[in-house]
Amino acid sequence: MPARAPSGGSPAAHSSTVLDAAASARPNYAGLLHRVPAILYTADMGESGRWHYVSPQIEGILGFTPEEWCADPDMWARRLHPDDVERVLAGEAQMADSEPGSSATEYRLVHRDGHAVWLRDDALLLADEDGVKRWHGVLSDITDRKAAEAELELRAAQQAVVARLGEHALEGASATDLMREAVVAGAELLGLEIGAVIEYLPARDAFAFRVTHGLSGISPDTVVPAGEGSQAGYSLLHCVPVIVADWESERRFQRSPVLTRHGARSGLTVIIQGRREPYGVLGLHSAQLRRLTPGDVDFVQALANVLGDVMERQLTDDDIRHRALHDPLTGLPNRVLFMDRLHQSAERLRRRPNSLTAVLALDLDRFKLVNDSLGHTFGDELLAAAAPRLRQAVRSSDTVARFGGDEFGILLEDIAGEREAIEMAERIAGVFSNPFVLDGTEHYMSTSIGIALGAGGESAEDLLRDADAAMNRAKERGRARWELFDEGMRGRAISRLRVENDLRRALERRELTLDYQPLVSMADRSLVGVEALVRWEHPQRGRIPPNEFIPVAEENGMIDTIGRWVLDHACCQAARWYRERPDAAPVLMSVNVSAAQVTTSGLAEGVAAALRMSGLDPSLLALELTESVLAGDLDELVRSLSALKALGVRLVLDDFGTGYSSLSYLTRLPLDVLKVDRSFVDGLGVEPRDTAITEAIVAMSQALSMTVVGEGVETECQLAELNRLGCDLVQGYYFSRPVPADALTEMLVQGPPWRDRGENPSGALAGDQR
Global pTM? Predict the structure, then answer.
């Protein structure tokens, strides 16, 4: 009897006609009714209502003849699937007191042979002339449709499992957790009881268990054979999924002892493939006979593919971790790994007060000369050749690290005392007594070494700083020697540390300010630009010269922060002057950029951000670079400066002629301005050599269409010589010291004071113009 839940079913009008025809059993409709691919029926209401008519199709769909079905009023209720009984009978009872109407529901009846058949019951409840209500309905076999829907639901669930596994992988879950998730989810969704991820061990030609589900008695040492004779081995060798339908009749493979012990009957294996090589196999099995479909294989393979990506990511992460902790040129640990080991050593010293640790800091003497004269490629070859010598000089338990450039650090743990550290330093110095043979030529190098001893009370940072201070003292005393850190060095180091600590708070406390030194046109003595110069007003020590704190900032990495502050404030000030004097000629703002800033990847972005924030036209900003930037990689420098030039700013090479410049640099770098160093300007009109050099610089700048600036102008003679040589712009105490922003604003409004002075302005003082 159909479930008569008032669900608003929709029997078509022709259904009623067909059922009426069946009820009246008109002979001329009998053949048509028998060809309808569904069961037509009329039946009384209720769980044991009598079935008056059932069409012959019932035998093909449920295995019973119409006579058998109609003879037993309880047949319908008895054949209801156990999972549907309660729902269907409740609906039937609910319809008992309802008015005549239509109903449609879906449920399962058990076939005569025991398998379930899904049926859709479309029925109409009608009352006859005596008022008795009967069902007139059609039972349609929808088993195939239900199977297709179940298959779609299963595939959707499988896709969700794979997607969730992928999400967890992207979130950084461990490989072991992801393996366990894949095995458990795959087994549960497919209704299998046994699963495992097994890793292939090439040396043993066997598999080791990494994660299991439903398996007992598995230890870390448990292995199963690989090769053609095993299901998992065949999957691995041929990179194909393998299904075993029934191990009792399987002839291709030998069932492993583990599967035999757990009574596995059916199962599948798929390969876990990394990009470079296979990791292993994912296997799922059942103790019952199970039919595994191609869709099931695709699902399990998708899980394995995620695991393959995870294993590849782990290998990549290991490679990245190694690269992050090791120097790519020498293969030695880098500063990060060295400091980590030094921290651990310092912790162990606190627990073992009778032990000592030594830190050695060393540089290769005059290595910069090698780079400048023979090139960076040769320098790299020399560093690569020095690394194995250092490793061979120390014990296997010691750490040799390269910090960058020609800086190396060595950690000696568990040493007996100061003498042992000194002997190690002498041994290291000795390995450099033999020449380095590079490209068939012998080259001699020496090293300066600083030693710091730790007994447990020092921090890792203090030890390395002390060793570095001792190394600098060794350089100061002639190089090719070692120095042991002492209290005098500690005092100097503490003083430097105080500057560093105070400098870190200087920005927070707004102790940094900017002064501006005018840039003057030689043509009409007009103020055409300014150079922004950072000043530190210390609350206790007063004004601290830049040459005392800028080198500290460059060493400790604060130069980026200070540089951004200077750039932001200078751009804002230049934009403010422009807004306040919209009809006057704009003032060029020149900002110094250290070599450390140029080598950072974010300089161009920082400049762009300062321009956006201030609204300053890029053409009104000039960035001054000292010649020390040319000591680095020229190709990288060209890329960095080109990125800055693309913003529309001007690029100035400061202190030209004092260190690293050559014509090749000038032709390759996108420079706009050259500044003649004050050391040459000092001798103009007095020292013929300085005059000749300055004249050459000016002529060369003009040939390259560059503006030339003379800096450090202090006398009328110097000014006259620069004018005679054709210098475009000048700056110096002859015109003005660096002044605060409000004083410079007054110059812009009232005119520069040097225009009202005589030919020899008073107040021209020698001194550092930075």
Answer: 0.45
